[in-house]
Design a protein that fits this description.
disordered N terminus; Rossmann fold; Heat Shock Protein 90; about 45% helix; 19 strands; about 15% strand; alpha/beta; 5-stranded parallel β-sheet; 5-stranded mixed β-sheet
Length: about 625
């Protein structure tokens, strides 16, 4: 038994392999013939759209090669059935030798034609009725070879959609022609919308030529709407194919256009609940494939294809002022013009981010700039305070020299005045001597006044405006104030001033620059104090050159400073003096740099040299 079973199994496998190898060649040799029968013609909407989708779906879903043949029932445009006889004879002759494997009738007229002539023409051929409302199918005449993919057109729902999006609508013009199918739907629509008769006035266009219809549509009263059913044959007997009639109507109509089929959606109609072409076409193709695969058509049952979720054309909504809030729940909006945000979202985000970052940086920089300016103002104020205190401290140190300088002209004035009095007290006053004494008193007084003015300008807190200065004279004034200190410390003064055309001139604040030179001279004097052994020489030189501009050097013969600390002497609070504050040279450098100059120090064989350079002023 086991051996027999093995032999049977092997035979079955061999048969399956042979069948699998034979099937492709058989299928390739004998493609299945499928006829698509149009109701009016290949270019009549909406059936033309169904035909396109059905062909596409058949080719996509089938596992056999197909020979799809299309024919049109031109006789459906009129109510006379006599012209159908030649067409029947034509089809019989066409498929006498090679019968069709399947017929797909598209639309109600095609379905009615097939049912009328089924026994004499297509008695045993499987049939699929599609794109036809279930009210147009004669179910009692269906055979075991018939399958139906029906539609359900809910006209009441379609008209109620108009009232929802345009609640002020009072008149609805139903576009319908004079062909038999159009007459049927005029009656069907009238019955379906009877519940709305008290609210809306319905008008029909089956008594108008299409040109008259266009004229009427261009002058409709306010609160009107147009409902597009069909326009196959108008009252003048003119046949209208494709989407041309709806396009022409849309171009002149002064009211929005509505319909129920997706085939008309995308340019002319506003939208609403629609029959989707793809839904019907996919079901039709699926049923056709099942029949071609061997299933009995009469046993295939499909529910009616009904309206899908509402869909609306944004462009028509904008044209007729339809608010998005008026749309039914679950509505989808198509052809919406993308906003700048939707179109350039990432670019806008990127640009906005860059702008925000730049704004933040600018704000930060402005804040930092303002903070630094405030800090600079505070620093300058404190520097001015320190400079003033430094001048006062210097004045204290120079008090003896100041007293000596002022005392000399005062003593001269007292001596000359005494001499003048003696000349006047003689029996014969010597007026020439008195005049000479008074002139000397005047010179001494002017000298004392000049000393006092120099001191006042140097040690007052306020500073003068910058003006052209003779550097030689400015340094001479400082040296006059320090004469007593130099004499007291036994310091020899050597000067070398550039004179004549090369006389140094610069633009500056006299009091501040006098303070700088006074500090430098006093530092040199302190460096060569009584504790210092060796010659005590103070050298002051001025010169003018293209490289340095106005250059002033103040050199002493003191002990000098360690070379590694020479740059530190200008740092705030750095000092080599036991009682020093470490602010003098720092203040001097700040003043010099604020005048656009430079202050630096260098070592010499016998002490330290300070160099001060200023821009030359005419």
């Amino acid at each position: 038994m086991t051996r027999v079973r093995r032999i049977c199994s092997a035979a079955a496998i061999i048969c399956c392999v042979m069948l699998s190898l034979a099937c492709p060649s058989a299928l390739a040799a004998e493609p299945k013939q499928v006829m698509l029968l149009h109701s009016f013609g290949r270019d009549f909407k909406p059936w033309s759209e169904y035909a396109k989708f059905i062909r596409t779906e058949l080719n996509r879903q089938t596992r056999w090669p197909l020979d799809i043949i299309e024919h049109s029932l031109v006789t459906a445009r009129a109510g006379d059935e006599d012209p159908e006889v030649p067409f029947v004879e034509y089809l019989r002759a066409m498929f006498a030798k090679r019968p069709l494997d399947l017929i797909v009738s598209i639309g109600a007229p095609a379905a009615a034609f097939v049912q009328r002539h089924r026994q004499q023409l297509f008695a045993s051929t499987p049939m699929v009725f599609t794109a036809v409302d279930q009210r147009r199918v004669q179910y009692s005449n269906l055979t075991a070879n018939d399958a139906v993919v029906p539609l359900w057109i809910n006209y009441l729902s379609a008209i109620e959609n108009i009232l929802q999006v345009l609640p002020d609508t009072k008149d609805v013009i139903v576009v319908v022609g004079t062909s038999p199918i159009e007459k049927f739907w005029k009656e069907a629509i009238g019955k379906d919308v009877e519940p709305l008769a008290n609210r809306i006035k319905f008008s029909w266009t089956d008594d108008l030529s299409f040109e008259a219809l266009l004229k009427r549509a261009s002058a409709l009263p306010p609160h009107s709407a147009i409902f597009w059913e069909l326009m196959i044959v108008d009252a003048a007997g003119v046949v209208h194919e494709g989407g041309t009639p709806l396009t022409r109507l849309h171009a002149v109509a002064n009211a929005p256009i509505f319909s129920y089929d997706e085939a008309f959606f995308g340019r002319e109609i506003v939208g609403g609940p629609l029959l989707l072409t793809a839904d019907t076409s996919k079901q039709t193709a699926a049923v056709a494939i099942r029949i071609l695969g061997g299933e009995k058509p009469g046993e295939i049952r499909t529910p009616p294809v009904q309206f899908a979720s509402p869909m609306f054309d944004w462009r028509e909504m904008q044209r007729w002022g339809i608010s998005e809030s008026r749309l039914p729940p679950g509505s989808k909006i198509y052809f919406r013009d993308p906003s700048l945000w939707e179109r350039y979202r990432w670019q806008i985000v990127l640009i906005a981010s860059v702008i925000l970052i730049q704004a933040a940086l600018i704000i930060g920089l402005l804040y930092e700039h303002r903070r630094r300016r405030m800090a600079e103002v505070v620093s300058l104020q404190r520097m001015a305070e320190l400079a003033h205190l430094n001048r006062l401290a210097t004045a204290g140190e120079l008090s003896a020299s100041i007293a000596h300088e002022v005392k000399q002209p005062v003593t001269a004035m007292v001596a000359q005045s005494s001499a003048a009095l003696r000349w006047l007290s003689q029996n014969t006053p010597n007026l020439s001597e008195v005049r000479a004494a008074l002139e000397k008193i005047s010179v001494a007084g002017n000298r004392a006044a000049q000393i006092v003015d120099n001191l006042r300008s140097m040690f007052r807190k306020e500073t003068d405006a910058r003006r052209p200065l003779n550097v030689n004279n400015l340094i001479r004034n400082v040296l006059v104030l320090t004469t007593h200190e130099l004499q007291k410390n036994d310091i020899s003064l050597q000067t070398a001033f550039s004179e004549g055309a090369a006389e140094p001139k610069t633009l500056g604040d006299q009091a501040q620059l006098e303070q700088v030179f006074l500090n430098l001279v006093m530092n040199a004097t302190e460096a060569m104090s009584a504790s210092h052994s060796g010659p005590r020489i103070l050298q002051v030189k001025t010169s003018v050159s293209e490289a340095d501009g106005v250059l002033i050097t103040i050199a002493d013969s003191g002990p000098g400073i360690d070379g590694k600390n020479i740059d530190k002497i200008f740092d705030a609070f750095y000092t080599t003096k036991p009682a020093g504050m470490g602010m003098g040279l720092s203040i001097c450098r700040s003043i010099v740099e604020s005048h656009g100059g430079r202050l630096w120090a260098s070592r010499s064989d016998r002490g330290l040299i300070f160099h001060v350079a200023f821009p030359v002023s005419d």
